[in-house]
Design a protein that fits this description.
The protein has 133 residues and is of the alpha+beta class. It has four helices and five strands, in the order ααβββαββα. It is globular.
Length: 133
Amino acid sequence: MLTAKDIMTKHIISVKANTPIYDVLELIAKHDISGLPVVKDDMTLIGIISEKDVLSLFYDSEEDNNQTVNDFMTQPPLFFDANESLLDVCDFLKKNVFRRVPITSKGKLVGIISIRDVIEYILQLRNEGAVAN
């Protein structure tokens, strides 16, 4: 059985709750990603921040340079354990509006799976001849 840890991205860009919100915007743009996990210093997952979460910045008439991730993040985050079935992760991504889901082990962030990760895995299987045409 394939599990979440089998295809998760292990190199994770994450932020802390006190990270300035404009730093997050720069990370999203620089790395061409749509969201980031929010963690404590010990990598405990506490939230997630996405492109959609920060759209309200466009409407703010007064720019507040003191806003942080904590002002925008979604919490508690939805996540999967590293040993959970990859099929369960795919079902979740297919049925929900989320484009990515954090992967944890004992409450600590260890990876992330995005829809793009699943697509790349499907293509890898096809190229290896493991997926029927």
